[in-house]
Amino acid sequence: MTRSDSGGPLDDADLGLLGSIREMFEAADPMPADLPERIRFSLALRDLEVEVARLVEAEEQPALATRGAEQSRTITFDSDSLTIMIRIDPNKDGTARVDGWLAPAQRREIEMKTAADSLNVSSDEQGRFAFARVPRGTVQLIIRPVEQGQGDRGRSVVTPALILLPTNLGGACPHVPRRAGLSQL
Questions:
Q1: CB half-sphere exposure, 83, CA atoms < 13 A
Q2: Which residue from 34, 113, 140, 153 puts its CA 20 to 30 A from 53's CA?
């Protein structure tokens, strides 16, 4: 764009220059492939009044015993009113099985948000729940009270988003980046 026509519409030279700049930035700092999915997750949660659970660092969790080629992963989330522990195991069909426990033990409605759909189950009186087949990709748990008006037990609790990687990519189950890269939507 020249000084004489700076107020006019963009011409082919301007568009070519802008295209080159865009290509330079895409090569130097590309947009994360899962950004649109993460934005949709964030927008879906923006109107909820929820308590956000924090990921308990692996160093804070007791060591887990493993047998043979087992590829399960246990993750714990903690909030002021609820602790959520989940174990993720790969299924032969490429999905994952997610077993979970709530403490203190209580009946709750559990929603597993995925990129494609939401899966719903209820925990039993001991706080146990399970999702038999969860597709790989970004997932997030929302734990809701069965009945409203139960004090702290009446608030919904949301976990940070997790990325369940296919087992053939070397990830046993979930991708939970360390502090700097944790995807908390």
A1: 8
A2: 34
As given in the structure block, the two tokens for residue 118 are 């939401």
Quick check: 1 pLDDT over 60? no
Q: What is the mean pLDDT of residues 147-154?
A: 60
Whole-model pTM: value is: 0.61
77 within 8 A of 57, measured Cβ to Cβ: no
Bridge partners (DSSP) listed for residue 88? 73, 98
Phi, psi for residue 45 in degrees, rounded to 5: -95, -5
Q: Residue 12 — pLDDT band, cuts 50, 70, 90? A: very high
| Domain boundaries defined on the chain | 1-30, 35-181
For the chain, the three-class secondary structure string (H helix, E strand, C coil) is CCHHHCCCCCCHHHHHHHHHHHHHHHHHCCCCCCHHHHHHHHHHHCCCCEEECEECCHHHCCCCCCCCCCCCEEEEEECCCCEEEEEEEECCCCCEEEEEEEECCCCEEEEEEECCCEEEEECCCCCEEEEEEECCEEEEEEEEECCCCCHHHHCEEECCCEEECCHHHCCCCEECCCHHHCCCC
- Closest to 142 in 3D by CA, of 157, 121, 162: 157
